[in-house]
Each structure stands twice: as C-alpha cells, then as structure tokens.
Design goal:
Blueprint lengths: L4 E2 L3 E4 L6 H9 L1 H4 L8 H18 L3 E6 L5 E8 L8 E6 L8 H17 L5 E4 L4 H9 L3 E8 L2 E7 L23
Antiparallel strand pairs: 1-2, 2-3, 3-4, 4-5, 6-8, 7-8
Helix pairs in contact: 1-3
Length: 185
Amino acid sequence: MIPVLETERLHLRGWRAADFEPYAAFYANEATAKYAGGVMSREDAWRDLATVIGQWTLRGYGFWAVEQKQSRDFIGYAGVWHPEGWPEPELGWGLVAPAHGRGFAFEAASRAREHAACAWGLKHLVSYLDPDNHPSRRLAERLGAKFEGNCDLGGDMAAAYRHPVNRGSDPITTQRSTTEPTKCP
C-alpha cells in the first residue's frame, strides 16, 4: 500500500487512473519531458507509468503522485526511484509546467526524503540530473545536496548530487557516512 504524505500545500499519494491524462501530457510536452527521459507517445507514457507504479510492489517505495491540496489537481510526481541497474536509490521529482517556480518541488522532495529515511531507512540518497537542467540543479542545492561530479548513467551523462544524511528521527545533517557512496557505473 502506498502511504499518503501531506505538506502544507500538497498531498503525495498513490496513483489513480485519472492521473494518466496529465502524466501523458507531461511526457508529450518537450518543455517538461526534456529532462525526464524525453518526449513519449501515449503508449510509452502508459508503460512508463506502469513501471513507476510497479516499483512500489517490487521495492516497497517509489514516486508518489503529487496533487495540490486546494484544487486536488495532479501537478507531478516526487519520491524515490531505483530501477534495475541504477547504482542506488534516487530522490527525484517532476512537475507539470504550470506548477513550476512555486516551491512545490522543494516541498514534495523534502517530504519524500524525510519519509524515505524515517520509514524505509533510506538515509543516503542521490539525485541524478541532466547537467543542463539548471532549475533542478538549483533545487538539489536548495535541498542541501552537494555536487559529486558527472557520470555516465545508462548511456546518458548525469550530474550526481548527494543529499545530506538523514538519520531518521534526527534533524537532517550534512555529515557524510563512513562508507563511500556508490559511484555511477
């Protein structure tokens, strides 16, 4: 079962059939899909969403659908992504164009990261970002993540940002673990 998380302005919740239309529109729009795997057909967006939902069963965590509390509108996704072949769990986010620049991604990613540490013990997260995705790079830095360098991730260049260690009930700190983080393949 996918837990429901709440922030001041958002619900992070499980996926609904009604989310497919805005999800497909997100991936049909070059501006929003550019840094999230690229433009997809409706059929490919369907398979992608099925993969996102399936990760909850296979890993016990994943991306939530993000909706505004006030309007109940789907505005994107946020959470932890760890597909087969990925070196470690990744904190990720993506929002529909009208939701950009309003602090929603920060709010959703912060809450997802906190839950990942407290509920699932995922205290060491990374975000793999397109080197040209300057808004997400700024967001990662605002979240306290530090740039570790560029790496090849599945044939694509990615900028790796290491998030602060979250010790669960302790406040998030920027102390590094005693073990080296997993490097990109």
